[in-house]
Each structure stands twice: as structure tokens, then as C-alpha cells.
Amino acid sequence: MSYLRTTFILLFISFVTLSSCSKDDEGPSTARAILEGRWKIALFSQNGTAVNDFNGYEFDFTDNGVVTGTRSGSPTVTGSWSIRNDDDEAQLLLNFGSNTSFMELNEDWRVINTTSSKVQLEHSSGSSSGTDLLTFQKL
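The chain above was modelled as a monomer; its predicted structure follows.
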């Protein structure tokens, strides 16, 4: 009887331990990755059409939730960022305020994939306007 009880307890502990693993255990979390280094927008598309408005900008994400975009010859743009989980999906929230050049980035972007050198995101508005894609690539 003691052997059966010990086996059951070990199986229960193993089940609880394995079921508590998350997707972030398989690679870097988006928050950790994006804080390390400077980034550029490698892809921004709206409804399948590439948008090049952000070419040449370098983005720096700080641990206090500030994101800064700089480009030679252009004013520095400052906004906020955060990570949240919505229905077990990680989302990167970007907000550059009312800066008209960057308003297209003011969204709750669903994290598709994160590596140490690339963060791939998408946003669907839920209406007929389609899907936007955003990819940050480490410089």
C-alpha cells in the first residue's frame, strides 16, 4: 500500500510540474529579448502592403516602459510599451501618443514569434480592414 501511495504522489508531482511549463520556457520572453539592444523595423505591412515610413529608425526599449525611436535628421520619438497576456496570448502594446507619424504603431500587437534577434507581431482590428504585420529585428 505504501508503494502505491508513493507512486501516486510522485506521478501527481510530475504532472503538476510539467503542466506548469509555459511557452516562454522554450525561448526568450518578448520582454527579455526586446530589452537587450537596439532594434529596427524589418517589416511593417498593412493589409499585405509594405509600409516604409520607419526605415532608418532605431528603437530602444527600456525596462521602465519607455520606447524611443531615433533616425538621423529626424526628431526623436518617444512612446510607451508593455507586455500583457490576453487569452493566454502575449501582446506587445505600443503607444506613441498623438504623434501622427507613429500612430500606425499604436496597437496591441499579438506576439507571433520571439527570438533573441527578432520579434514578429500581428494586429487584426476585427473589422474588414485586414491584418497588419510588424517585425522588429535586432541591430
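Confidence is low (pLDDT under 50) at residues 7-12, 14-26.
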